[in-house]
Amino acid sequence: MSPPYLLPLNNTVELPEKTRAALDSIEQQFDLPTKKLEEIVEQMLWEFGKGLSEQPTKETKDTFMPMIPTYLQHIPSGKETGTFLALDLGGTNLRVCEVTLLGDSKWTMRQQKYKVSQALKMGEVAALFDYIANSVDQFLTEIGTTGDPNEKLYLGFTFSFPVAQTALAKGTLINWTKGFECKNAVGKDVAQLLQDALDRKHIHVKCSALVNDTAGTLMAAAYERGDCLCGGIFGTGTNGAYVEDVAKITKESKTKEELEQAKKDGLDKMVVNTEWGAFDNERVVMPFTIFDSRVDRISINPRKQAFEKMISGMYLGEVTRNVVLHLVDAQVIFKGFSSKSLNAHYGLDTAIMSALEAFSLPNSDSAADPIASIRKCITKDLGIADELVSDADCVAVARVSEIVGTRGCRLSACALAATIKQTGNDKSDKEVKFGLDGSLVEFYPRFDQRVKDALRELLGEDVVKRVVIDLAKDGSGVGAALCAQAAMAMEAKAKH
Ligand code: ADP
Ligand code: MG
């Protein structure tokens, strides 16, 4: 069994036999013993290898992760300087930033957000990109730039949709997600669409890098803290990018001479976007509970993003909701009654799990009276009538949250362990840095500790001692600017 992070709570309240038995059963279904974690890491390494050596086809695309080469070959040292633009499209707002790299691991940023209307999300793609170019124009007019007015400004474009990348500033849209449905976009090069729109308006800006947010996170972490192996996101979804040997990306088929030249030029590494959220879509190794199957079955993308659905913010709360409902239906908690929000699809936000478990943190306001703080979540956030909630129910709900969340953290650790092994860092004596971003990393209580505990089981204390996990925020701003800087540096190198 995994270590019980909320253990003190279990001892404060005597649980009825029925509650204890129900919790034991849930615990068993969600348990990931060390041996299982090891199998998962092995399978992940197998998928890494497949993805690096084979282009996915229609038939094979769900059997391994895509492992997309980003063509990003310049990892920042912290000494980079210059002024760059960064664009971020993929959420509710379009963000335009001007980032100045100061060269001492520090930077300054000015930014502006622009609303992307429903009409733009559903209309012609040219209209969307005209709007983006207009926003850049407006930003430069209203906020201005400190860059050299005689030189073209380099821009890094964080485009958080699935893209088949073929060069640092070239990639075609595979499909839209997250409510975007623009016409005439799929199959087009999105960097070119942006450049055309900028050129139509005679804006002196060059789109020089197309950036995945994981790669941006890695770049930002490397700039701020030096050498970084992997950038990861544990937010709405989960994904990671890491620094791989060019020689191992055999689907890009380079000759021996080319590899030797790359080494001479110092370009023998490349950032690879794993798309690890899609790990084990074929269900080879991960133990799926009936709760996972239910979450998957009624999701908008059944049988896709299998790993993500056990780990990320969009789904953890939904898995927890299904388990809590099961306890209600089995008459174990709340005297068998539910509520409107507990009945609603996605009615239990992952943020509620953080609130339920907040008392477990040292220095937490709720540490003194955990039951009262859990009760508040259950009645206020989940809308269960106070008279239906016993103290034992409070323990049960918090424990369910912990069980589901701990499994998520332990699986997250598998992705980190696979990256460490893939790059031979389990055998080195170097510090191994991860730059991670997203609400789970930032807000989920004891995320770090749970991940590190699982890493320790997998790799041993000697390796874990060398692992540094940093919160690396704003990969889509600073990170994208660093990608634009990398494009400039690589162009300069190519000229020589
Ligand atoms: P994105 O990945 O889109 O950049 P975030 O990193 O902000 O987004 O993560 C948003 C996700 O995190 C949502 O699914 C939300 O349910 C979840 N979330 C928001 N706040 C918290 C919190 N305090 N604890 C855990 N999860 C949270
Ligand atoms: Mg984010």
TrEMBL record:
Keywords: ATP-binding, Glycolysis, Kinase, Nucleotide-binding, Transferase
GO MF annotations in UniProt: ATP binding; D-glucose binding; fructokinase activity; glucokinase activity
InterPro entries in alphabetical order: ATPase_NBD (IPR043129), Hexokinase (IPR001312), Hexokinase_C (IPR022673), Hexokinase_N (IPR022672)
One Gene Ontology cellular component: cytosol
Residue span(s) of domain Hexokinase N-terminal: 23-223
Taxonomy, superkingdom: Eukaryota
Pfam families (alphabetical): Hexokinase_1, Hexokinase_2
Pathway given in the UniProt record: Carbohydrate degradation; glycolysis; D-glyceraldehyde 3-phosphate and glycerone phosphate from D-glucose: step 1/4
One GO biological process term: glucose metabolic process
EC number(s) reported in the record: 2.7.1.-
Annotated family: Belongs to the hexokinase family.
Name of the protein described by the UniProt record: Phosphotransferase
